[in-house]
Amino acid sequence: MSGRMERIVIVGAGLTALRAAERLREMKFDGEVVIVGDEPYKPYHRPALSKQLVTGKLATKDLFFPAYHDIDAIWRTRTRAHKLDHGRHVVHLPGGEELKYDGLMIATGVEARHLAGAPRHDPRVHALRTLDDAIAIKETLTRSKGRVVVIGTGFTGCEFASSCREMNRDVTIIGRSKTLFGKALGPELGAAIGDLHRRHGVDLALGVDIRHWATGPEGVAIVLSNERLITAACVILAVGSMPSTDWLAGSGLVLEDGVLCEPTCHVVGASDVVAAGDVARWPNLRFDGVPRRVEHWLNAIEMGRAAAENLLAGKSRAKPFTPLPRFWSEQHHVRIQAAGIPAIGQQTMYLSTRPNGAERSITGYIRAGKPVGIVGLNQPRTMIHLTRQLDQKLRPMVPSERVRNATPRRTPVENPSVANAETLSERTPSDSKIDVSELSARLKAPARNGR
For residues 381-405, b (16+ Cβ closer than 10 Å) or e, as one string? Predict the structure, then answer.
């Protein structure tokens, strides 16, 4: 297939694009590779923005990724794609330029979600998504000494709060959820991580809304629904993200919560187009046939490479992309590691010390009697062992020819939550042998200390 393709265009110039371009060259694609991105930079390490960059452990120049292979690509940075005409195989660029392609990869990622009412015009109020955002935040922190307020209870906001405490800054996390990471990790583990933040001096204002904002020379005033007033020298908006798909409006593609794809990363409704990374929503047949997005750093790498392979192979020879998602975070020197999709779990079970302040635990997530995810706190060796077992246990479904060629249903976007899930709590000595098979087996036995 590569011999018939003369130009492959990748829209999005992040890590996904870089690793996809490398894979194209590894597979001996000798045509033109054009990478289009709206930022002025080549790919850089986004997770480091909320940690090493803001604390000064790394400088801006340290964040850029090297290419492992000579990709011989044409980089069109500072260039925002405006429109896709997949019938004509054209990406529209500024100034009326039409960039033709033989194969296209959509890798535009996500953008920071806006918070209604937030005074974005104030230079002390920031989103945190890009390198320029992080540089601006660092400048605000350097100029001020007051409290930092983080709006949002997800990983980005919590990592940033941890970084602020490393710098001895007062910090408050505000969120509607009653726990941190409620949808991602479940209420009990979220509560345990909340306790970790409290023990390290983070003020948590959870289960509240913001009623009013006011800006003045003394800071940014925030009035909460419980009548509490907080004054901030710096505000970080970390209320989630949205897929960057505005440029695809009118293209005919399905754009509910990202670009809808087939199991092989091929975009539904377009020929010779794949999508990869945070922007792509596809059914991972390792779990089920429900299309989901996965916003993890490792997935950006793996999906970029898989999509590049399948673009060259063509639909008829493409293979389903069925990774076992993995991600990690470090907060207050506690490493949080996860494998699978904990958010779709209906029940949880502790495989080692319960996370009630111990900061060392393994939590398993179960759906329909089967393990679908594990999360470990400061258990790196055990997590390696369990991740391998989970990988073996969650074998991808082998699609039939009918399923392989079927279009994913345009069902409402899934928003899984484990907030109301039954929790099975058991304690296993931390030095005992741990096996993910216990997650299924223990469901048949009554839970001790369960609720």
Answer: ebbeebbebbbebbebbebeeeebe
